[in-house]
What does this fold into?
Amino acid sequence: MSHFVNNTIATLLLLVPGIRLYAGEAHSLRTLKFSRENARLRDFVLSNPSEASFQKIPWRTSVLQGIVDAQKNDKPVMIYLMNGHPLGCT
It folds into this structure.
């Protein structure tokens, strides 16, 4: 128990002065000025409207609803399946 108390006290002694210094400063909101290189890289990374056309497709999350809609409109069904946790936590 004393090990826990000693570590807690040491942590507080290190954190409190830093918190007081940060709280005392006046942080103003300002607009950042980006360089041309930054703007060029931003435009390169972000998708333009022609590349984001997949977002206009009315995707279905239910296989059954997708099959019913595809049969009504005489269109094919694409099923995307994956095995495991979507965040890779398997």
